[in-house]
């Protein structure tokens, strides 16, 4: 008789091995770019790919030889997801380390995890000085992370019982909640095709807007992942209005549930428009843009202490000036609103210069996040809807304590346990946030930077407030802060409990 | 047949009438002080007392003549509590307005509601210039508010079903949750005697510490209410260490469940020490004091950029200097920690000068609050315990979805609906907080002031951050901000839902 082990270690090692092999293959994809642009870093990229391939392949081969049972338990799931994300981030940092572009281990790990978690917070102070082969790898980490999130959401999180993700699954094409297993592979594949198709379409549109093939490829990869790594030091600020609008549209799409994007390809527009989460998503974007556009337009018109109505009156004759300013205000706001709510994190204008109120508004958007089932991070809109509806009903329940009044979402009653789970998630999110600020303050950071950096890393967004604002980077933070923020990115990306549960005693007890 | 009305209006008016008569009687209590100190304001006080008495008595008489049914419904309860608090704040502001000490209606309302809600945020820029009769009235508003809160917690909130207050009731002496009604009056009376006795004891101790009778009376009144209004411009900063320690002890007692304080009088110390919420309360105070004392001691020793160990080494010989500094650090920290966690809000040292980390720690304490069943505001410790235990168990439930694992508190299982209610309260608290910051930012306040003012008013604390820090006041805020913050004080004091529920459509529907 064999002893039963707490975890299926061999299978865990074998799957992490596969992840490293995938890493290796994507690194090799960067090689031709490195050679084409005549860069020295091809040696570093090849070496990194080899190390990933050999260690990954070796681990896989070793654990397969032990012929582990295929029986994957829930607990193995938590370990695979968390350890997998950590291991690929260590090994994915090799191109940076070996090429010397990011010589510190802390920085390389931060940058790579920032990639895989689709956060986009960067330690690079001069992005344009880094070789194109390496920058493509940087963009690819985000694209891989986005693919990973799609599998995670469709196939893994609902099984692990993570905060209300079952709600999304009921919506995925070809999946019924009671018969999940058999169709998962098919669904994941379908959504990957959508992801690939959208990336390709955006790239073509960016090239039509006169962007180079290389830049278009990079920005398409990091838009669809809601990642936000750019190959430009100024992010999207120097880009043409056309290109900015293309990015705006694709950020919006990337923040949409990929099942709805699949409907987009199929032309089922009605199904998109009647989705309740989508309605909220579009309304928040629309409402925020309207409100903040007015504020920015007003601020631009009164620059230098001028009187608003006098300016408008004086410019009434040359209405083109007014229109141009209105369009610029609208575009800047729309770009930043969508970039933040979808947790992409590209920057085309500095929102910290838009009055305290507008900055705070943007900051609040950081805690909303995109739709569930997209590549966006953050709390996600569906959870806010459940929260809002439940709070409202709770008041009704208080007046009529004996009545049973369930929350309804997309015309279905949401079970008590899912509602409970969602409330729990939201509280955990804000508690983690509060603790995070305390830790960052203990490391000597000022309040605004602490608030901004934790919010942006936990929400997988990218730009924050204070010294890590939209036109700054994370290079100057102490090493401890970088490791801690990396942990925040991991927590946020894996919906908190996947990681936290590993630290509880229950997890390590045999049952 | 009589038409059934939505509310029992006559009974509501009659009860509010009684509240105004009580107002009037307490105003008359200030009159001898005014006369003794030869102040002109006796006219204003008398006039205010007359107006309160006549309008209150008239309303009572009028509605009694209509002989309303004694049948008080739940909905009437919400209205009485909310409207009652608002009406006495308007009429309680008359002494300020008529004496001219606070000539603006906005300011007078703010100061009075700040009193009744035991918040202690003040618009007075020079407290010592105000007449003693008026200042005593100011202190009395807090003491009345504290009495009101005790009735509210024991008798009213549990019936209205407010966020987990049932948990406290099960603890109150002589109350069993299934047979609540008959003993409520008795319990409330008993706790009022405890309240009165503690106020008197503190006053005597302060006088032993060489404080004048007048100052001792005022500070005893505002300590036991966890109110924090002081008769001194510098609050407690200039007081002797003995007096500071007396205030520390009584703030701690005021933040303790009054049922436990009743045990204190009865000498049932074991019952106090085995109370779970009390253990948390003492631990948070102890832990915070230990941690922050070290930080403040270190900061004081290294003032002017000196090296810590060199200073310690140099002063080792004259150990009295070291000890004095250690005692001062300990006392300052203990005072501020207890003042903030009990939501009293006296100030003996400026915590905003204690490094970002220590300030943030104090700020976090603002969201903890004292024990349920005390006069303290804020979220309250019992709710944090339920939250913490439930979060931990939620992870266990995730691993074993079929198991039913209830939260246990004071060795009893907490029902699912109470847990749910507590989670809902905490979320509502933080949502209100976030919305509050946005509103304050929209009124043009800077981020720190917005964060601090909403936190301190919602938690009924007193001092905040930024321009409303511990050594500042609220006078400079725009009128809109003062009205909004008044609303926040009311929301916080009435446990949010008592007020919010009135704004829902359910409330105004006949059932
Ligand atoms: K991002
Ligand atoms: K207070």
UniProtKB/TrEMBL annotation, chains A, B:
The chain crosses the membrane at residues 12-36, 42-62, 78-98, 143-170, 191-209, 242-260, 280-300, 360-382, 418-443, 483-508. It comes from the Bacteria. InterPro entries: Cat_transpt, TrkH. Its main location: membrane. It is found in: Cell inner membrane. It is a multi-pass membrane protein. Keywords: Cell inner membrane, Cell membrane, Ion transport, Membrane, Potassium, Potassium transport, Transmembrane, Transmembrane helix, Transport. Belongs to the TrkH potassium transport family. This is TrkH family potassium uptake protein. It comes from Algivirga pacifica.
């Amino acid at each position: 008789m064999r002893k039963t082990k707490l975890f299926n270690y061999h299978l865990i090692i074998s799957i992490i091995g596969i992840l490293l092999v995938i890493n290796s293959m994507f690194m090799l994809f960067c090689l031709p770019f490195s050679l084409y642009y005549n860069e020295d870093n091809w040696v570093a990229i090849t070496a990194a790919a080899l190390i990933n391939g050999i260690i990954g392949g070796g681990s896989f081969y070793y654990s397969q030889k032990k012929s582990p049972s295929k029986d994957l338990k829930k607990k193995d799931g938590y370990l695979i997801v968390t350890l997998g994300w950590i291991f690929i981030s260590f090994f994915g940092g090799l191109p940076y380390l070996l090429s010397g572009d990011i010589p510190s281990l802390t920085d390389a790990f931060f940058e790579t995890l920032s990639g895989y978690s689709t956060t986009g917070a960067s330690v690079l102070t001069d992005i344009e000085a880094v070789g194109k082969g390496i920058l493509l790898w940087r963009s690819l980490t985000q694209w891989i992370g986005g693919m990973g999130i799609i599998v995670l959401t469709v196939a893994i999180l609902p099984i692990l019982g993570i905060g209300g993700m079952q709600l999304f699954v009921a919506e995925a094409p070809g999946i019924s909640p009671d018969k999940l297993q058999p169709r998962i592979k098919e669904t994941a594949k379908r959504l990957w095709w959508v992801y690939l198709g959208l990336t390709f379409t955006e790239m073509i549109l960016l090239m039509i807007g006169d962007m180079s093939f290389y830049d278009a490829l990079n920005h398409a990869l990091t838009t669809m992942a809601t990642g936000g790594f750019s190959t430009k030091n100024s992010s999207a600020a120097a880009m043409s209005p056309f290109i900015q609008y293309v990015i705006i549209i694709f950020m919006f799409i990337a923040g949409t549930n990929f099942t709805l994007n699949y409907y987009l390809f199929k032309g089922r527009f009605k199904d998109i428009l009647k989705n309740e989460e989508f309605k909220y998503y579009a309304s928040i974007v629309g409402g925020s843009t309207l409100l903040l556009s007015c504020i920015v337009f007003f601020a631009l018109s009164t620059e230098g202490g001028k009187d608003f109505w006098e300016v408008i009156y004086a410019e009434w004759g040359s209405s083109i000036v007014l229109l141009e300013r209105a369009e610029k205000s609208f575009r800047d706001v729309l770009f930043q609103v969508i970039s933040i709510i979808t947790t992409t994190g590209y920057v085309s204008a500095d929102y910290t210069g838009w009055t305290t109120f507008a900055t705070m508004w943007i900051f609040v958007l950081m805690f909303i996040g995109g739709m569930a089932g997209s590549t966006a991070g953050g709390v996600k809109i569906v959870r806010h809807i459940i929260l809002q509806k439940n709070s409202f009903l709770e008041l009704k329940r208080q007046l009529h304590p004996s009545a049973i009044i369930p929350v309804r979402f997309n015309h279905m009653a949401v079970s008590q346990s899912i509602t409970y789970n969602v409330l729990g998630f939201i509280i955990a999110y804000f508690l983690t946030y509060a603790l995070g600020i305390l830790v960052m303050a203990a490391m000597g950071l000022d309040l605004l930077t602490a608030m901004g950096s934790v919010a942006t890393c936990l929400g997988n967004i990218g730009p924050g407030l204070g010294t890590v604002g939209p036109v700054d980077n994370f290079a100057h933070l102490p090493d401890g802060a970088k490791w801690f923020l990396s942990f925040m990115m991991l927590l946020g990306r894996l919906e908190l409990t996947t990681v936290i549960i590993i630290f509880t005693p229950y997890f390590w007890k045999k049952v």
